[in-house]
Design a protein that fits this description.
CATH class of the largest domain: Mainly Alpha
Protein name: HTH gntR-type domain-containing protein
Number of domains: 2
Helix content: over 70%
CATH superfamily of the largest domain: GntR ligand-binding domain-like
Number of strands: 2
Organism: Agreia bicolorata
Shape: elongated
Keywords: DNA-binding, Transcription, Transcription regulation
Pfam family, one: GntR
CATH architecture of the largest domain: Up-down Bundle
Radius of gyration: 19 Å
Order of helices and strands: HHHEEHHHHHH
Strand order of the largest sheet: 1-2
Number of helices: 9
InterPro entries: GntR_C, TF_FadR/GntR_C, Tscrpt_reg_HTH_GntR, WH-like_DNA-bd_sf, WH_DNA-bd_sf
CATH topology of the largest domain: Four Helix Bundle (Hemerythrin (Met), subunit A)
Distance between the termini: 56 Å
Largest sheet: 2 strands, antiparallel
Structural class: mainly alpha
Length: 226
């Protein structure tokens, strides 16, 4: 299989609603602890309760919504949850990366190179949406190449959350990000799993820092003027 960035398929109504709510929750537009009523959300989005129920079920699987006695509440504590998400991601992705290095041929890494090339093309055409898509597929490729089905399934519930975090925080300097990802892939292809995992740690710590800054900016921008 060749891993190339492509335009996302049109989202079903439940997925559209879950995306909008996910953005609102992570950005702080909907505060932690807010009760999410199916009826109110159905009115807000002008849909039946079915798509809303699908959206809330998805957000619950991501840990962004908490079920308390059959009532659903937002469960996102800002920076504390960012720390949890990135520590979990680093653990999962480090394991995926080690297994991918063990199992992947040069041809397999050539396919991942195509994603870096797609990022470079998106940077050249100033297309941040295509850039972010290729960026996420770059990281997801480690799970595919790990040949560990359950590890890939463990990552899947959080992928949408990280897509939002990436969109909120990705650097405006796409050319520099391409260089960073190319350097990362070069380390991976060299075949030293310890060096690759160390590079992943540095990569994710920088990403987490940008996310923390973006969420703090978002929180500050919603505070009432003094």
């Amino acid at each position: 299989m060749v891993f190339t960035a492509h335009s996302p398929r049109p989202l079903a109504m439940g997925e559209q609603i879950s995306h909008k709510l996910r953005v609102d929750i992570i950005s702080g537009s909907i505060a932690d602890g807010t009760h999410l009523s199916e009826d109110s959300l159905a009115t807000r989005f002008d849909v039946s309760r079915g798509p809303v129920r699908d959206a809330l079920r998805q957000l619950e699987s991501e840990g962004l919504v908490d079920n308390r006695r059959k009532r659903l509440y937002v469960s996102f504590r800002g920076q504390r949850d960012i720390e949890e998400l990135y520590s979990l991601r680093e653990s999962l992705e480090s394991m995926a990366l080690r297994l991918a290095i063990e199992h992947t041929s040069a041809e397999g890494w050539d396919e991942v190179q195509q994603l870096v090339d797609a990022m470079a093309a998106a940077a050249k055409s100033n297309d941040p949406e295509a850039f972010d898509l290729a960026d996420m597929e770059f990281h997801t490729s480690f799970y595919r190449l790990s040949e560990h089905r359950r590890l890939a399934e463990a990552w899947r519930p959080y992928q949408r959350t990280f897509e939002v975090l990436l969109d909120m925080s990705n650097t405006a300097d796409m050319d520099a990000a391409v260089i960073d990802h190319q350097g990362f892939l070069d380390v991976v292809r060299a075949g030293d799993p310890d060096a690759a995992v160390e590079r992943l740690h540095d990569h994710l710590m920088r990403a987490k820092g940008r996310v923390r800054d973006a969420i703090q900016w978002s929180a500050d921008s919603t505070e009432p003027s003094q």
